[in-house]
Amino acid sequence: MGISNKNKAAIYENFIQFLQQKEQYETRITASYLEGLRKHIDVEFNLNMTELHTIACIGEQEPINITSIAEKIQVSKGNTSKIATKLLKAGWVRKTQLNDNKKEVYFRLTPAGKKLFAAHDELHAKEEQRMYDFLDQYNNAELEFINKLFNDMISFYQ
């Protein structure tokens, strides 16, 4: 095995280890994140991450319809509709219609949904800052390479 193949094998092994660590981290952080949200807004709720991302999408784009939510969170329209129905019943969102289009249903956050959205936004900002702090160890050339690598990996897996 040549030096290049040794390097490729080492990169592949590190990548597999990274994926495993990332999965373990996401399991830990999701539980911690949901608990943090519950404490932050002082309301008990039973939502998964896709439902929280749906609330975030509505909060960022309201008023927004099912088709647009599905596109933005990359979930089927059928699943998005089920999620929206659950969020509606739980009081996180409400249905509205625009004055010029009475057929189309749009969603907006309720006051409780806005509180959850704000807490979600705050926790995301903390996680983003954590990543920025991590990236501070690299110079601009290294950051450009990392960005290229991630863009190439996204293309590879699409």
Report on the structure:
This protein is mainly alpha-helical. The protein is 74% helix and 9% strand. A two-stranded antiparallel sheet has the order 1-2. Helix 1 packs antiparallel against helix 5 (111-135) and helix 3 packs across helix 4. The longest helix has 39 residues, at 3-41. The radius of gyration is 20 Å and the shape is elongated.
Short précis:
A two-stranded antiparallel sheet has the order 1-2. It is built from six helices and two strands, in the order H-H-H-H-E-E-H-H.
**Average of the residue pLDDT scores:** 87
Q: Terminal Cα separation, in Å? A: 30 Å
Our count of helices gives: 6
- Major β-sheet, in short? 2 strands, antiparallel
What's the topology here?
Layout: H1 3-41, H2 49-61, H3 66-73, H4 77-90, E1 93-98, E2 101-109, H5 111-135, H6 140-157
Antiparallel strand pairs: 1-2
Helix pairs in contact: 1-5, 2-4, 2-5, 3-4
Keywords:
about 160 residues, mainly alpha, 2 strands, about 75% helix
